[in-house]
Amino acid sequence: MANFFRNTWIFIKGIYQRAERAALGNIVNRSTDLYEHAKAKLIFDYAFYYTMALIPVTVLAIVTSNEVNLIVIPFLVGMLFICLVLLRNGVSAKVVGALTSLTTLVMPILSSFFNNQDISPKYATIWIVSILFCYITANLLTAVLWSTIIVAYLALVAYIKLNGISLYVSSGFSNSYLYISNPIVITVYLLFIIRSMGMYYQNVISMERKRTQQQQKQQLSLIHQHLTKQFMLVKGFSRSGRTAFQNGELELLEACFTEIEKQCGIAINYLDESSEQKHNGENYTEV
């Protein structure tokens, strides 16, 4: 059994890596914005792992002969594939993120509506995640607009239930299906959320750390250039001071000492800046 799960994980990981290269291969070359890269990676992870999460949901739909879900799920997967194609073809992460979140919002709404207006946790979870995903990849305004869709649907469900309106219910829906599917689907969705959203924040932290380290390298290089300049000046003033001392030119000698002291002070300031930059970088790395 352990080998089975191990081989399954290796197989899924191989598919993931190949799909990631296919979907995100050109993004690094198109943009140098690390945050844009992180959002694109999140969109891919979200689409890929949500598709994986739909596999047990599909099996459950087949077992229960839930006709609505068997229609909605393939369409949902197809839309996610289209979103990844758009991302690969250069469409901005903001647009693709908005479309992806709308897809994972509306399709479950359709499934919920035709499954006796089911608003149990298995639907509520993906709706909330879709809104959060939209906020991260698109913007606050789009997330608010998508939220109004959920609120409007919940209001519609409340109206239908309160007035006892009878509507079409998918053949596979039943109370037993509701009770059995909730723990299964919620477990899958939680794993999906941990993997996609958790990796996003890890990627952001990693990219920010790389950016900070790059800034530190640039700062240290600049400080090295300044120090080299200061030491060359000190060396020149030292030679001038030695010549002035040999010739008995005390005023020139004093001026050389003054300049040497000044340049040493500037060099010390540069060294202090270097130490401060290094200290800040170490603190960020620890975080």
Automatic annotation (TrEMBL):
<keyword id="KW-0812">Transmembrane</keyword>
<keyword id="KW-0472">Membrane</keyword>
<feature type="transmembrane region" description="Helical">
    <location>
        <begin position="70"/>
        <end position="87"/>
    </location>
</feature>
<feature type="transmembrane region" description="Helical">
    <location>
        <begin position="126"/>
        <end position="159"/>
    </location>
</feature>
<feature type="transmembrane region" description="Helical">
    <location>
        <begin position="179"/>
        <end position="201"/>
    </location>
</feature>
<keyword id="KW-1133">Transmembrane helix</keyword>
<feature type="transmembrane region" description="Helical">
    <location>
        <begin position="93"/>
        <end position="114"/>
    </location>
</feature>
<protein>
    <submittedName>
        <fullName>Uncharacterized protein</fullName>
    </submittedName>
</protein>
<feature type="transmembrane region" description="Helical">
    <location>
        <begin position="46"/>
        <end position="63"/>
    </location>
</feature>
